[in-house]
Amino acid sequence: MNKSEKSGSRALLTKGILIQALKDSFIKLAPGVLIRNPVMFIVAIGAFLTTIVVTGDIIRREYSSFNLQIALWLWFTVLFANFAEAVAEGRGKAQADSLRKNRTQTRARRLRGKNEESVWATDLKAGDIVVCEAGDMIPSDGDVIEGIASVDESAVTGESAPVIRESGGDRSAVTGGTRVISDRIVVKVTSDPGNTFLDRMIALVEGAKRQKTPNEIALIVLLSGLTIIFLLVVAAMPAYFGYSLRSSGLPPSDNLSLPVLVSLLVCLIPTTIGGLLSAIGISGMDRLLRKNVIATSGKAIEAAGDTDVLLLDKTGTITLGNRMATGFIPADGIAKEYLADAAQLSSIADETPEGRSIVILAKEQFNLRGREMLDTVFIPFTAQTRMSGIDIKKQGAPVQSIRKGSADAIKGFVQKQNGFMPRKVEEAVAEIARQGATPLVVAENDKVLGIIHLKDVVKGGIRLRFAQLRKMGIRTIMITGDNHLTAAAIAAEAGVDDFLAEAKPEDKLSRIRKEQADGHLVGMIGDGTNDAPALAQADVGLAMNTGTQAAREAGNMVDLDSNPTKLIEVVETGKQLLMTRGALTTFSIANDVAKYFAIIPAIAAPLYVTSAGIAPLGALNIMKLASPQSAILSAVIFNALIIIALIPLAIRGVRYRPLSASRVLALNLVKYGMGGIIVPFIGIKLIDLIITGLGLT
Amino acid sequence: MKAADYVEIIVFFFLLISLSPLLGNLMAGIFMDGKHFLKPVLGWLERLVYKVAGVDEKREMDWKTYAKSLLALNIAGIIMLMLLQMLQAHLPLNPERLPGVSWHLAFNTAVSFVTNTNWQAYGGENTLSYLVQMLGITVQNFVSAATGISVALAMFRGLTRRQEKTIGNFWADMTRSVVYVLLPLSIIFSIVLVSEGSVQTFSHYARATTLEGHEQVIALGPAASQIAIKQLGTNGGGFFNANSAHPFENPTPFTNFLELLAIVLISSGLVFTYGHFINSRRQAWAIYISMLILLFAGLAISLHSELGPNHALNAMTNMEGKEMRLGPVNSVIWSVMTTATSSGSVNSMHDSLSPLAGLVAMFNMMLGEIIFGGVGSGLYGMIIFVLLTVFIAGLMVGRTPEYLGKKVEAFEVRMAIIAVLAPSIVIKVFSAIACSTAAGLSGLNNAGPHGLSEILYAFSSAAGNNGSAFAGLNANTVFYNLMTGFGMLTGRFGIIVPVLAIAGSMAGKKITPVSPGTFRTDNWIFIALLLGIILIVGGLTFFPPLALGPVVEHYLMNLGVTF
Which pTM value belongs to this model? Predict the structure, then answer.
């Protein structure tokens, strides 16, 4: 998590992204691109028409600085919106480029019967069988059907430690673009060319295939509707104005000019949210990616925000993924301290949480410390031996060989050296297992020293996290294979709302169905093939990257870190995305109040002027803007600058707080609703002061 | 304002606020489970209607069937009413031998009464025969009111049903609305009106000789029965031209008080019926309070502007266009109530209201008649704004928007926007056409900003299905008859059809249970939000024309400039 947080707070912009985004802002002026965003398209048309007016002015030598400035700021408005989108995309593109490096053309060794042939990786189809040996790049996504190997997946996950991939079981999926480090595996390709995990990832990150999400579409409908309403207002204005001119005894030629009408329109239509909407969507996807989660669609992120029931696996999410040492139980005739010392020695090089917990426990209980050892060989844990430990040598000859591991493995180890497993130890092992904990047996050479008691430890802070989720209206359900008693104890300790004990995959599925029938939206995590149906059924199915290909296909998100706690972060990211959209929409709509008060008195200035020279609607000029022209120009400039000002917010998202909906709403409402009303009054006034001071009007 | 005025206002709102839940409960019984005390008394009539019409009241309809039935009935109503008017010279019950009505006026009037607008481009007593008044006008007063209630009921069902396709039976909703709600209330109310001095007769107009020796014709007719439903059904079309300023329509201060209450009674009761449907009194109160706040705000501005010293009148209270019998306060309350609801009946001449009071009246209509509004239509219009509010602000809690547990998605937003857009198009486009064409301007009696106000008022009234008028506009021309006619149709069915579509789509959705993560729509924050959205999305879009009409007129008046 720390890693992802660190990368999440990476600088908002790099120079490269900025330059590219500037270029893209202009490229995106193409009408075909602009029309995807109805609000900005209208602004662009307005800018275009105003430009024609300005050109006409110049040709007729009636140059108007006002019209020119309006035209420029209207173009800026469009460019700023394009820039917002380009920046958001740029951040994703940078990521995509680093991914693409791994997809350079590779040769694959395809099996035809018994024969091997060399083909281009891109020619592989689903169903082909390929062989990969140490050093080979895995050519495409697939399932290991033979062998076991360690694979470097850093290209995809960013995690440098290699992972084990083996046939059968839940760790059989391999990803194209990753590299085999040791051994040999036979892989059955599961994706057609162009449709591999990496391909899809690149496409998603780049935003090339970005589809608008349901809520985004609905919002665009709303914004377009509002735009039409304001278009009507503005279209009707010349008629009302013409009538008023006549009543004021003024000639019809004094009617509102096109640049003024366009200014009014652009200020009233929701350009702020219209310009930032796609940037918000893209950066939501991007924020998720920075947490090392890949969503197969933006829809899934929205669904994550809506989720109100989370199915969480006990192991890894609620309890520490690996069990923690909580006690040493020596065999008869062995001092407890000696056992602890041996256990610590065997774990010094063991970087797993279990190993570290043993080192720490020994230090706490007996003040034993890890020490520098000369002439030692660490024996790492392997799937075959199911033991780890240390060999201590003197003058090259092993004198001390300490192992820890499962009871069966250690029994084999000591028996090979003509040792034996004491009955009492075997009984203690059985007892610990019955309690739902894990016994690790420690042996030195042929002698069994005792047992390390490993227990499920509920993660620190998880209780608080669940309490926050509850406050947000999200129920948590713990899924575990443990028996009912053990499950209940852990559930109570962790503070989950409900649990499902002795859960089989089909139990998960039926629970999800039941919750959905009650109207809930369910999020879950899974990795195994038998999780696939439940992952597919859930509204948010987060598959672990270490899981099977079936699970990864079934879910709508993949967690590259394979960290089960991630689901909670995914929900938070979804909520943040929706909040950002809502906050900026509210802000944008609230802005209109001030703009009316800037523009209406300005355009009505010549109407019904009394013999004393008083313009009656001047009373509405509560900002006391200097002149009608400066008022209109200030409103247009504010309208353009606010887009730029809000880009960081759109990309970072509004501040997320785990509070109840009512509290969140109240906070956001004060900030973006009230702020949306007040800020433009201040902003427009300031701009008016500046442009008047500069003599621009 | 005198102490008695304050007492009247307080008593009025006390009665309204206590009667609304009672009537709401009764209507919930009528429309939800059919168990209510009127069933044994009037059940035979309901069954008779079904039998005669051949309706199977238990057959549920999807929204399209519901909408088709509704449109069929209303189109038939328009045709019937047009024919009645154009052929009245050849039909009975026409003691004054009034000639047939022109085609365009007949169209305008037919549309007007079918759409519950009751805009009257004619004077009742010198245009329509008793037969047309009774068989045409009064019947449509009932039908149009019942149509509004039915659409609201369909919306209620849509919002409460889980994954179903249907939203009720239109014919059953219509029949029950008329038999159990509109008829009983109208009968009781018309008897009270007659006892207070309203006329109810088939005889010829009375002829009297005045003190100066001139002969005066005093129009009579079966008025009381029509006035009852005119008020109760938020119709507002007067039997006489002077509407509720006429002593035969509104004889005493007591009838004035009752008629005022009748305008808003059913609309406000329906809010609580809705509360029963959705099983949440709090939700109903939130909507009710939002409506009350808008009503009070309008009332306060109007009273302040009307009763305060008027600079154009040397600081006297403006009494022009007001009925001396009723006084300025009653006139102002009525002007606010009749425009807040879509009644449109008047007891003073709105054209003579001070600019700001006129602005309030106009603004009430421009908001889409949602401050209690028309029977049924006010509430479903308000629900449209509730949906928009939920959609815009609901996102801020970090969930896709939902109302009553149902997701508000693109389809609903599209329909809601159409419902907001339909009347808005009429007001903006039609009034722009009117104030820039000779045909539109020829109807004006006033110059200056007030002329623009008159045009704006006319189309706001048509689009909002209100029906009241700034009397200064001569609206019986081909131009205005057609323009307001189409305006009324758009303002009515341009909302009803999308509302039914929303009902149909919502009925098919799941209901997410309430949790602390739910966007609440029953608390003060929501009320504030709803009001904000109504004022900004519904109201502010009319700021430019309003600024050039009543607002500038107000400032000019304060500067002592009149036209």
Answer: 0.86
